[in-house]
Amino acid sequence: MLAVILLRPMRKTSLALVIALSACGAPLAEVEEIGEPIVYRGRVVTARGPTMARTGETCSVEVVRANGGYLNCRIRIRCSGDLVYGLSGAGYNNCRQDGEELVFANDSNGTRRDGDPRMFFDLESGRIIISDDDPDVEVLVDLMRRPEGYEREVEP
């Protein structure tokens, strides 16, 4: 198929496209979930903009391991039954671990960049932030309590 493209008269933009496409490697392997999710409960502290989540509503935050090299977890956030983060094939992140626990993730790209909202998950602080630029929204969720057995030693 590349030969057919090269036989046509080319402009600079199409030459650049051919070069870019020929430099692409094999497609990325599909990332899949591993095991059962750990579910945390939270409450919406603040909701700004046209979002389904409302202040005071309860949320569930599902965190599950994934088999991607870089994308090692998937996070889904539901508030009052509505999925506000992790739709369809989205929600995969690079989670930081503390022992076996997935404790931190930061999806810093919004819908305009990668098709899903931004998301910040920090188990230690008990805080989750879902925000976006298309439309402009922000939802702040505080976990109701840290999971049993999760204690971080504080140095004096």
Please describe what this structure looks like.
The protein is mainly beta and 156 residues long. The chain has one domain. Helices cover 14% and strands 44% of the residues. It has 3 helices and 10 strands, in the order ααβββββββαβββ. The N terminus is likely disordered.
Which outline best applies?
Answer: globular
Helical proportion, percent range: 10-25%
- Summarize the biggest pleated sheet: 10 strands, antiparallel
How much is the radius of gyration in Å?
A: 20 Å
Quickly describe the structure.
With 156 residues, the protein is mainly beta. It has helices at 2-7, 12-23, 111-114, and strands at residues 33-48, 58-66, 73-79, 82-85, 92-93, 96-98, 101-107, 118-122, 127-133, 136-143.
Notable features of this structure?
single chain, 156 residues, mainly beta, ten-stranded antiparallel sheet, globular, disordered N terminus
